[in-house]
Amino acid sequence: MTSFIMWGLYFCSLYLAIFWLLVLINKYLNLREGKDGAYEPDVSIIVPAYNEEETIVSCIQSLLSLEYPKEKLEIIVVNDGSKDRTLELCRQFGERITLIDLPKNSGTKAVPLNVGLRRAQGEIVACLDADSIVERGNLRKMLPYFDAPDVAAVTPALKVFKPETILQKLQWYEYLFAILLRKLMSLIDCIYVTPGPFSLYRRAVVAELGGFSEKNITEDMEMALRLQAHHYRIRNAMDAYVYTKAPDSLTQLYRQRRRWYQGLLINSSIYRNIFFNREYGDFSILMPLNVLSVVVLMASTVLFAYYLLKPLVKLVWKFLLIDFDFIGYFRNLSWNFYLLDFAYMKLFVLIAVFMFGLLSLYLSHRFSRERIRQFGLRPVVAFSLFYFLFLGAMWLGVFSEFLRGVKNRW
Amino acid sequence: MRVTNTKIFLGALVLTTAIFVMGLLLGLVIEGKRVDYIEKSSQTQKLDFESLKLQLLYLSSLEGVESCPAFSVSLSMNIRETEKTRERLEGYLTDGVAYSDEFRILKREYVISQLNYWILARRTKKLCNSDFVTVLYFYSKKCPDCENQGFILDYLKKLFGDRLLIFALDQEFAEEPMIQVIESAFNVSESPTIVVEDKVFSGFQEKEQLLEVICGNYADTPSDCP
After folding, report:
1. Which of A54, A138, A391, B189 is the 20 to 30 Å CA partner of A398?
2. Residue A279 near chain B (CB below 8 Å)
3. pTM above the 0.80 mark?
């Protein structure tokens, strides 16, 4: 039984890997990247801020130094009832920014975003989380992607801001993977998140769709799905880097993932009519594939733990039966080893999966123009071997909480 | 209507299946090689056994027992080799996809040679006054305690080396009637069951219990005995 599940998992993960590789070969190689256009509209950037005294200044400074005509750039900072010095720090920028002060915290990010949206004048609006920093050339790199009226949003490439702890370094690699994956998704018009840090939108479209959903815990994902549901296109500017601060403790990371993953579950169920609906083309198959990847991830984590722990428990129990007489057991150890003993079929498929892993590691670094051994060999090895299990474990935690939460509500 | 890249979705399916089929074919080739390998070892082991039988026949026609030590050494060496290949064969049989029938025939050959060695060992013991203990171990794949029982016997084998000869018999292997003949001779009904020399122990046996019984059968008690 378990071996059938295992083969199923191998098959699914191999399928997903090959699928994305084919997307890359089929689309990217025929595509001329590096857009340059003279599109220079008015741009409004909305920065919702709640207790961000540590990062707000560098965030606003990075926006002020964007390479873009000052008269065409409007920066709207919405202070969402911060209890720290955020407001005071924002005031020092004076006339260079538009400051909106909400007296009470509104609980979700969507509320300050919508407040900013109503105030915004630009044809294009950008959102930027206060814990993120943009590169100077980003607007110039991203705006040319609005080359058709049905392009409603352009996403950037997110990187971890100055990773210091091992946890942040591991996330660094994860973000690079996400850069690759988001590019691949954009090639078949399947992006389902327009991340909080520096996604650009056509203001008219967002306004027409009613702004950000104020009840949703991942309003950025909901917005992307709503755009998709209305057949708008979301593009990706892979060379527009935005640096965002990654959680540095496990609790914080888990809290962040709980929001993301629950958001994915909730929004997938809100937009379930897209699933296998031919009207949506590739996206109608891709959404179920995303769900499948999550299931594969969780199942492989469980199975891996099972295959690792079960023999371990058995072994300890066996040695208990011989009173842990290791000396006696290993004294006459005979070496019974033969090349034919390997399970070659398993090995073959495992090697195939492993090769695709290496390939995607290489591609994700190439696409984001980083060196693989940026932080030495150890973090990247730890990432390749364990990070997906770690993600799987977090997913299992979030998923079980989600199920229990649903029960409580009923 | 948006575009569906059916070609990509199907192409990925075809490629994935192709990789799996390649893996399957590789597995089959390897399994064929395994059959060849076990067959070859089986032939060699049969010849070795014939030779031992001949040696014993010759020894028993002589008056003295001067050649006995040399004979005992080659006997236990052959038993060890047979056991190694048998264990490997069990593994191949579990993994087996296409050649299960071949493996079962080979397994039968190995059961026969095990029992041949068991009888030969008992005769050698009488003829040469050798100081070793023979153990028959009846197990089945379904029995929950058998894995641990096997581990304990394995451990004892490691303690006593060639002075403990263990013959493991699969109770569910119906192809070889000799297993049932011996089972009924010793009144074996349970699994695991352990027969030390001629004494029968039904059910799971603790290490201490087995150690005591086995040690009681030695003329010259080994240092590992309590």
Report:
1. A54
2. yes
3. yes
